[in-house]
Amino acid sequence: MSHPAPPRPPGVPPARRTELPPVHGALICVAAPCLVISPEHGQLTGRGIDGIYRAGRRLLSRCVLRVAGREPVAVQGRSLGADRAAFTATVRTGAEPSPDPDVGVERLRHADGTERITLRSFSARPVRLQVEMLLGTDLAELAAVAAGRAGPEVPAAVHAAGLRWSTGEAQAVAVAQPPPDDAVASAGLLRWQLELAPGESRTIELRTTHDRTARAPAGRVANPLADARAEGDDPRAEAWFRTSVQDLGALLLRDPGHPGDAFAAAGAPWRLGLAPAESLWTARMALPLGTGLAAATLRILARHQSGGRGPDAGKIPGPLRGAGPQLPPGCTGTEATLAFPVVLAEARLWGMPEEEVARLLPAAEGCLDWLRGALGQDGFLADPDPGPRRCETQAHAHRAALLGAGLLDGCGRPGADEWRQWAAALRERFRAEFWIDGPDGGRPAAALHPDGRPLPRLTSAAAHLLDTGLLGGGRLAPGLLDRAGTEQLARLLGAPAMDSGWGLRSMAAREPGHNPFGHRSGAVRAYDSAVAVSGLAQAGFGKEAASLLRGLLDAAESFGYRLPEMFAAEQRTTGSAPLPHPAACRPAAVAAAAGIQALTALAGIRPDAPAGTVALSPLPGTPLGALRFSGLRVSGEPFTVRISRLGLGMVEEAADALQLGG
């Protein structure tokens, strides 16, 4: 989220950091690259960040509806899905002596820039209405809008059945159907004279696009995950799973140079583009829904991989990301490079075709080669170099080594034994240098400073120590912690200092500098919480996993099942609720995928497609009751699994060649 500033000359005061405008109260519709940000009342006033966007440019900033000379009274704004929102309002025309509204207004707004405005008469006599729409735009880039540098509105011109705005580098067209009775370019005004019989409805459709012909936007990616379903005793699980799948589909973007490949954009509205680490983790969490997204994301990032023979050879570039007040920004490129062989290895187990694996294997080997060269003399990986040795970075490196070794073995490539030996040595070093003993049982350090001093903060980054990764045959990779350390970490993550009742805090409540709104110092991050749920479940700590899962589900319900990437949470009490973070992306790819990972962790699916087996390890205690997943995919074929109220896993549908393992 943040980037380091260049050094300041002496005596020059620090520049004020740009503050993102709050969007937590907005209704966001997204069908990447299309985006609409609306206030709850539905009127786009030309102020703030609200508007209709395409590919990062605002096509319409003002869309104010007036009926009978007044703005309708807003009654409700609600989301109808990832790409649609509805706004209900009423108008009292004065045709009836009653104080009751006599005209209802329903606005259905779609992310692609289409809006359908339906007016319905509640009057007992015919009503004549003047309907006006005041339109305008600045054609500004989203980044300029967010920074408060949008500029003035662009003059409009009458165009066919609507208006057009144009500058030297951009244009927007708004076309109405039926055509307006009057169009005034100088005022950005479209006007209709309508007559409604009792109970009659009339609809006006407004389509806004960047094309003179006002065609519907092309190039949308069909959601390859849409067939997946969850159903069970707790209907909220079905709603959360369905919304997560819809949001992931809405965030899919095509690679401009290779439009056959699509990736999950990081989030709306601020990061509607490629973020290598987030896109890879999203693809990994969505593997139960199929390997197509993972394959496309890996191909895209393989094309971005650094070549040559320098110190960055084999690394996937990525920007710096803020790590809170305790640590300097970390490199998302490091995270993505370590994630690449992990995602490829697990995608192979879920059934990625071997020919696809073979094409991507050289890029994975390049990532491992980079890791070998980037290690410090102490055997740890700094992030960035020189810099702290973060605990989660060591976990990512350890996982990459072990799963990379399995990948090399499975593909008949050399080097697997070397990586297993290195991982074993890293485990010994980590347990000796990262573990901080204490009267409460101790804890892992959040990081080691370059001089070897530990940073004794308990943060959600420690959850990644439990995310060991899948090996073949239903086995899990060993973790960096021994059994005693794993038990202690599970106890810490399950205690109220970390488990807020709504998910996992990013820093324990009693740590110095804790801030419930801090994106790395206390706020709940959906991704880290899901990692903790699945990691705890795999390690056998069902009670702690179930508590975090139920908290996340309750939080999802309070956010309409569209979890933001982070949110604030004081300790849960009766009647309390999680609080939105003003700057959080919503929807966000990792938050949407977190719903998929957290729920499918209940089934404990461990596939090995090359061996033709799949194992189930359901979470004991069935915290959500009976649950059935359908539309999943293993070995490229539909896969359906049911978890009974007794915690028994049953495969209902699978590829013919797939056998249930132990």
Keyphrases for this structure?
eight-stranded antiparallel sheet, 26% strand, alpha+beta, 662 residues, disordered N terminus, Glycosyltransferase, 2 domains, five-stranded antiparallel sheet
In short:
The protein is of the alpha+beta class. The longest helix has 21 residues, at 354-374.
Description:
This protein has 662 residues and is α+β, with helices and mostly antiparallel strands. It folds into 2 domains: 183 residues, Beta-galactosidase, Chain A, domain 5; 425 residues, Glycosyltransferase (Alpha/alpha barrel). Helix content is 27%, strand content 26%. It contains 12 helices and 36 strands. The chain has an 8-stranded antiparallel β-sheet. A 5-stranded antiparallel β-sheet has the order 3-6-11-16-15, with no helix packed on it. Strand 12 and strand 13 form a beta hairpin. Helix 10 runs antiparallel to helix 11. The longest helix has 21 residues. The radius of gyration is 27 Å and the shape is elongated. 52% of the residues are buried.
